[in-house]
Amino acid sequence: MATINEGINGPFSGKVGSVIGSSWRKIHYIKGMHKIKSSKRKPSQKQAVQQYKFKLLNQFFSPMASVLDVGFRGFTDRATGKNVAFRYNYDHAFVADGDQIKLNYPVLKFSHGSLYTAGAEKAWAYGEGVKVKWDPKTYGVGGAMDDVGYAIVYSVSSDFFTCETALRHEGEVHVSFGEKTRGNDVHVWLFFADSKGKQASRTEYIPLTDDEET
Questions:
Q1: Domain for residue 142, yes or no?
Q2: Which of 26, 80, 124, 191 has the most CB atoms within 10 Å of its CB?
Q3: Is the same domain home to 28 and 92?
């Protein structure tokens, strides 16, 4: 910053080129404009990996936001079910496949709670979809016959989610998704929620088999 003395050019105010003229207590100044540092700094490798993980898991859970509100209903006083699911899953959600980072589908959870699950869970290709089956009895260990089962199916190749529900006592549900999701990359999960909207069970991952007897 420099002081301008009265002279042939006199003082000035305002912006001229890369300088600004101003005055304070009848003393005139010129000030160089501050350089704006670029905020587009290339992230480090570690930061880039973290950003990719964040995006990958966030995009995966987004289509199931309403289901996650049910599955994590006991933890949503101050956050959405999706945000709770993200925090709950993040530390164990990924697996390295060579140079690629992928989701570890069998360990992902869509719910958490103390409600009874079911036992004897099975899932197999059935028509244009998946049949999911479970033991309909509760054996008096923390569940009710009118609990709602949430069967979630995801196709990796089609990046397609769908979910169907059925009451616990029905013991099975057919999840239809059409030919576009056919393949060996289909994943299935199941959890239960009570009819009063207060409790949920933990999530069970169900490996997909070729038929019911496998």
A1: yes
A2: 191
A3: no
Any domain includes 144: yes
Asked if 3 and 26 touch (Cβ cutoff 8 Å), the reply is: no
> For residue 129, which of 182, 167, 67 has the smallest C-alpha distance?
182
**Distance, CA of 120 to CA of 61 (rounded, Å):** 26
Domain range for 7 is: 2-32
Task: Indicate the SS3 state at residue 102.
Answer: strand
Span 31-54, average pLDDT = 74
Based on the domain organization, do 78 and 176 belong to the same domain? Answer: yes
How many angstroms from the chain centroid is the CA of residue 31? 49
Q: Does 39 score more than 80 pLDDT? A: no
Cα–Cα dist 149/191, whole Å: 6
- pLDDT tens for 49-99 read 899 999 999 999 999 999 999 999 989 888 999 999 999 999 999 999 888
Q: Using only the alpha carbons of the chain, give its radius of gyration.
A: 29
Quote the number of domains for the chain.
Answer: 2
Say what angle helices 81-89 and 45-61 make with each other, to 10 degrees.
Answer: 130
Instruction: Give the distance from CA 213 to its chain's centroid.
Output: 34
192: closest CA among 166, 156, 214? 166
pLDDT tens profile 106-117: 999 999 999 999
Residue 64 covered by a domain:
yes
